[in-house]
Amino acid sequence: MEKVRKFVRFNDRHGILIARQSLKMARSAHAYVRGSTRKFYEWLETSDIEAVPRGPAVWICGDCHVGNLGPIANAEGHIDIQIRDLDQTVIGNPAHDLIRLGLSLATAARGSDLPGVTTAKMLESMVEGYEEAFAEEPEQSDFQRNRPESVRIAMRRSLSRSWKQLAKDRIEDTKPAIPLGKRFWPLSREEKLEIKNLFQREDVRRLVTLGSRDDQASIKVLDAAYWMKGCSSLGRLRFAVVVGIGKPPYKGRNLCLMDIKEAIQTAAPRYSRVRMPRDNAERVVEGARHLAPNLGQRMLAARFLGRSVFLRELLPQDLQLQIEHLTRDEAMKAAHFLAAVVGHAHARQMNALAKKKWQDELKRHRTRNLDAPSWLWSSIVELLISHEGEYLEHCRKYALIPAPILKESA
Fold it and tell me: Domains in the chain: how many in total?
């Protein structure tokens, strides 16, 4: 008897998405930290904010954990390690990105059963890498050469990937179609029509044909689906769209996978009296252009059924860093390198005077036994304590609530 799938209904999406998010966050303390961005900023509002230095007003990531950095290709295919998720980006205090990155790295170290002294040394390496980006003549070649092994592996994978690998990883099928199931759900009639209208716009056509493709080519939506993806982004609009470029048959460079993602109000505190786009998608795109140029040039803000969304093509080379099990040496190198990536993203927005002032501020509040600022160390210790307790409580609550499961019926 032919198998009949039971797909998620439009009205059931929200409950299932929230349950899936809770499940993902319960898998490990590191996963909980990644999915609890708002908890981080709730802590920031109630902590001793005066102890954290007030850095120059620049675009910051706002959610600068390890999983939000990785290989990113530009429109021409050149690959760099950059910030890859800018949903929470604002013009704010760069110190917040340092604290968030430090918390993520410290949680990864704890998950790898590394001793506390390694966490302390790792934060020293992190600050050292970050500050190197603000030197008068930063050595870009040395910065790129000193990649830790986990980053080298990601870069090798990124450089060798093709459309087939992208399609297999993202949509589990190499055909220009999206298989509906646990990750991809049917669209409502209204959503189908909105996607069709969106991809008839000239600015969207130009985005799809950006780079080495024929910029005069026509485009055609081949398939689309609602996408159950991510952790902190679960519960908002997310769509995967397969687009054909030029004339059929569509394959290789004549296919692209577009990501449509809802942009929501940021939880990250912004500096007052600074000008940022009011529209959330425009804010995300503008932040990406400053912090991650490879990604920013491939993004476009739009409206979707009255909501703010941004579009980007998912390239085979775009990967998330996987840093789960660390040795002591790898922890040192990863902290140094990833902090340097964030430092370069901040530094390119500052003039020489602003860089010098921020460097001087970072060098203050050093203790005799720790070469990391005392405000950074105390912040991460407090956050580790609070997040560990909240993670255990999250696991207890989740274990008592049965999660909705997408079933198949024969």
Answer: 2
Tens-digit pLDDT profile for residues 371-408 = 678 888 888 988 888 777 777 777 777 666 655 544 43
Same domain, yes or no: 283 and 324? no
Kindly give, in sequence order, each residue whose CB lies less than 8 Å from that of residue 5, ignoring residues fewer than 6 positions away. 180, 181, 408
Residue found under tokens 């110190």? 95
φ, ψ for residue 314, nearest 5 deg: -90, 115
DSSP per residue, 88-134: T-EEE-HHHHHHHHHHHHHHHHHHTT--HHHHHHHHHHHHHHHHHTT
Angle between helices 116-132 and 328-347 (to 10 degrees): 30
Say if residue 405 is in the same domain as residue 303. Answer: no
Is 358 inside any structural domain?
Answer: yes
Query: What's the whole-model pTM score?
Result: 0.83
Q: How many CB atoms lie within 10 A of CB 364?
A: 10
Distance CA 232, CA 70 (A): 17
Whether 339 and 393 share a structural domain: yes
Q: What's the token pair of residue 401? A: 């609530």
Please answer whether residues 170 and 100 qualify as being in contact, where contact means their C-beta atoms are separated by less than 8 angstroms.
no
Asked whether residue 164 is domain-assigned, the answer is: no
Cα distances from 14 to residues 234, 290, 406, in angstroms, run 9, 33, 13
- Closest among 173, 151, 178, 152 to 163, alpha carbons compared: 173
d(CA 191, CA 133): 44
Domain presence at residue 399: yes
Give the pLDDT confidence of 22-31 residue by residue, as tens digits.
Answer: 666 666 666 6
What confidence score (pLDDT) does residue 51 get?
Answer: 79
